């Protein structure tokens, strides 16, 4: 009997060799998005974050469109039609740069475009989807309100019929891309229940106000939408939307991107900490040689790889048609918490340098505070998981 060859040592950047399980197409998408991120995004992201904005959102939208990541998991109308894992990989590579960049793509593709694709008429699809996939039109998604976050059923935005028209009044808050959008998918209560509306942002009565002085997700445009007597034709309603389940299904699509994105943020913080620890010298040697530093790195490796496994498994379930919304709740709940732990520990490895924008860890650390809150707070996802395993709802 011949001796078995000794396996190669694990790759510090992919300890469990998860990317070795990707298909050729998934690997190509990873490489393309990663190369784009390294070339076009990473060199500028610290400046964008410090400035608190995206200096050229339309140029960025066009670049994302050319890359093919806007609505990439949707079929037809100019969309790439990739599988869920490929979309997740794109989200991972973008959030490894910054959560705000993944949010841009996620809101465009998994909220605004998905809503039109799933619930829209053929005319609405033909009017908007190809342009949005190309980055020629920017979309936003108006569900959250100043007094209605985790409980969207309490929304105050109303749509009433006036002859054959609809008239919308209300306010939406924390809307990514709102003040640069060409179209808003707005959810409103009607006498028939919650319905979605396709609202061109140049419609009279529609105003978008940019939210300033943010301490998190600064490389992202966040807005308040104000609708005052916004009059829309009858065909502005998403004809297949019915009830609160419609916007919640859109949020579930976007949360899937967060499951992967958080894994990317965690990976970026770990990689920065590993690089810093092996090059920073104190007491006559690299700090990577200290036991306490190695324990921090070991904990990071565990969190990064478990987050990657979770994302990949949920992605495969989604592609097989077996992904329940509670699977995605589990993924967001676990992966965001893991990324927060990694970011915090990576910041400590960097010492005082970790609080500067010369290194990515503090930027990721504060961004993840927002990621933990939006599209379902960690508390809401914990209760969703609790309900799934006990059969008892603790929401009311």
UniProtKB/TrEMBL annotation:
Swiss-Prot/TrEMBL cofactor(s): FAD
Official protein name in the record: glutaryl-CoA dehydrogenase (ETF)
Family from the record: Belongs to the acyl-CoA dehydrogenase family.
Enzyme Commission identifier(s): 1.3.8.6
Enzyme class, spelled out: oxidoreductase
Reactions catalysed according to its record: glutaryl-CoA + oxidized [electron-transfer flavoprotein] + 2 H(+) = (2E)-butenoyl-CoA + reduced [electron-transfer flavoprotein] + CO2
Any Pfam family matching the protein: Acyl-CoA_dh_M
Stretches assigned to the Acyl-CoA oxidase/dehydrogenase middle domain: 140-230
Pathway(s) the chain acts in: Amino-acid metabolism; lysine degradation; Amino-acid metabolism; tryptophan metabolism
PROSITE patterns registered for this protein in UniProt: ACYL_COA_DH_1 (PS00072)
UniProtKB keywords: FAD, Flavoprotein, Oxidoreductase, Transit peptide
Highest rank taxon of the organism: Bacteria
Residue span, Acyl-CoA dehydrogenase/oxidase C-terminal domain: 243-389
Annotated Acyl-CoA dehydrogenase/oxidase N-terminal domain residues: 24-136
GO biological process: one example: fatty acid beta-oxidation using acyl-CoA dehydrogenase
GO molecular function annotations of the record: fatty-acyl-CoA binding; flavin adenine dinucleotide binding; glutaryl-CoA dehydrogenase activity
